[in-house]
Design brief:
Length: about 325
């Protein structure tokens, strides 16, 4: 009797532990069905709800053959997860105008020819006149790097990060990592976890990327000069160009966690120095990125942190002047 009771308790504990172990994979599969590439939204919803209901019912009805039931559930979850992993990214969707073309490049004798550089005109945030150009840059003249941070709405945790590469001839090239949106589509952090957006490396004129936030959305934008040698800046730009060229041929999905507009450029501009740095939440909630960069000594300034924030904030007078050809110089002219 006692031995049977012990076996029953041990079996119950083991089964409970196994179910708790499988629970996150089961819920993940429900979400993967909901946000899969099945064309009909209603079909996706029905399938995810059926899976959500089916598994608990199966365990209740077939509790006398628990292990066979668990084996069948594991096989089902593995099939769903394997199918979801194989869903391919696409180049051919009904893209929003500002994402209709992807940048690609050629480098010959130190001259970068950048195709499909974006220079959109924004009447409002969502009313866009798309423009794409071919521009050439002499990589030997590349000498400055700025880290640009613009808060996402009223969030104190998340920001849009950009990098601006400056050349001695006055040219400036701005880069952002973003979800590539379709027409009428809006960004959702949660949906960005489930292969809902392709990844875009946007190479643009500063009047496009920075001007959108400073002059159109009218949020605070900070442009921080970084301590980097010309060789380091060239390596970083070439790395970004190589990844953009790869995406132009082999598209990938945007991820709200691993490959995103929040943290990726921060990792590239200020890579962690030790394993402890990977635990710093500011690499992921990177509206705090300026503080991290300042503490590391990456920002080129002798000012205190609060003074640096004021000094490198784009002046409120800039939107009044419009997006002139002198925009890049204007947003930097009051620096100390």
């Amino acid at each position: 009797m006692f031995r049977n009771l012990v076996k029953f308790i041990i079996s119950g504990v083991f089964k409970t532990g196994l179910l708790l172990f499988l629970l996150p994979f089961y819920l993940l599969c429900c979400l993967e069905l909901r946000y899969s590439n099945i064309p009909s939204d209603s079909v996706r919803l029905i399938m995810s709800v059926l899976l959500l209901i089916f598994v608990p019912l199966l365990l209740i009805i077939l509790r006398d053959i628990f292990w066979k039931c668990i084996s069948a559930i594991v096989v089902l979850l593995v099939i769903i997860m394997s199918w979801y992993i194989m869903i391919p990214a696409s180049q051919s969707r009904n893209w929003a105008p500002e994402y209709s073309k992807t940048a690609y490049s050629e480098i010959e004798d130190g001259i970068l020819s950048l195709h499909n550089l974006r220079y959109c005109r924004y009447r409002t945030e969502h009313d866009v006149e798309p423009r794409y150009e071919l521009r050439r840059y002499d990589l030997k003249k590349l000498n400055t790097l700025d880290f640009v941070s613009a808060p996402k709405g009223d969030s104190s945790l998340f920001a849009v990060n950009m990098l601006s590469f400056g050349f001695t001839d006055g040219q400036v090239l701005c880069v952002s990592i973003e979800p590539r949106l379709e027409k009428g589509e809006s960004f959702s952090f949660f949906r960005g976890l489930f292969k809902q957006y392709e990844l875009a490396y946007v190479f643009a004129d500063e009047r496009d990327l920075i001007g959108l936030y400073s002059n159109v959305i009218k949020t605070d934008v900070h442009v921080f000069p970084l301590r980097r040698t010309p060789d380091e800046i060239r390596r970083l730009l070439k790395n970004l160009i190589a990844q953009a060229d790869q995406l132009a041929v082999h598209p990938e999905f945007y991820s709200s966690i691993s490959e995103n507009s929040f943290g990726s450029l921060l990792f590239m501009a200020a890579p962690p120095l030790s394993w402890k740095d990977y635990l710093d939440y500011r690499y992921f909630c990177n509206a705090k990125a300026p503080a991290l960069l300042y503490e590391r000594g990456d920002i080129m300034t002798k000012l205190s942190y609060n003074e640096a924030l004021r000094n490198f904030r784009i002046s409120e007078e800039i939107p009044k002047k419009g997006l002139s050809s002198d925009f890049s110089r204007q947003i930097r002219q009051e620096r100390k």
